[in-house]
């Protein structure tokens, strides 16, 4: 064991480090580097142009999304095995068909200014983006229904919520937020089209991920979907009703503010194809003004 080339010893050493897990994606993730021994990275990695006014290397720190998910799954390894045993599923046949539902959350952390500011000039507000593994289920071969083998008992607890990205930014600063979370969104999008192959309980298993943006408060949803702020006459983040309409009709509404539609409306707002006045234009796009950048699925 001792007389081995340095790189094998290095690799052996790495495997003993906490948070080190070997994994692979099939097909490989687009726009994401293939190295898997990734620690904490600069929050602006994956974004080429810099954000003005602030030293870019101080503004955000994050984990790569897929690496963080792998780490979270490995933490739940015993729970997954326990769940398989409880459901009477044969461990060795359950290697594919795992589905993981992730709840995403993002919120401002308020004022974090230094008392005697001698550090770098950074915004004095912070935002934290995090995720929670809500459930893991498996569809066994030949079975119609999926069987849930893990469910988070305290989905709203700090303890089950894993920070992915910490950033110095005001949550109302749409441009900087987009710049920092843009790469996170790109990674998430890439993961939707791929399967994670990871060793759990000594066997390689394949996982698919579904993301639900149910951890955002209203202010954040408006920010991420490019809607006017809370004082807007368009009161709802899911439908187009104005304050007046909502007070008349408390029952019949349809979900019209999906991500795709918000993007289309932003384009109309930006190009003004019908050469309308500001008021007419605003009425047409129903209060979409800043470019929406993060799909927030209205699932309860």
From TrEMBL:
GO cellular component: DNA recombinase complex; endodeoxyribonuclease complex; nucleus
Superkingdom of source: Eukaryota
Record-annotated V(D)J recombination-activating protein 1 ZnC2 domain positions: 234-296
One Pfam family cited in the UniProt record for this chain: RAG1_DNA-bd
Residue ranges constituting the V(D)J recombination-activating protein 1 pre-RNase H domain according to the UniProt record: 24-96
GO biological process terms held by the UniProt record: adaptive immune response; B cell differentiation; chromatin organization; T cell differentiation in thymus; V(D)J recombination
Domain V(D)J recombination-activating protein 1 DNA-binding: 1-23
Segments crossing the lipid bilayer: none
GO MF, any single term: zinc ion binding
Domain V(D)J recombination-activating protein 1 RNase H: 100-232
The protein's name: RAG-1
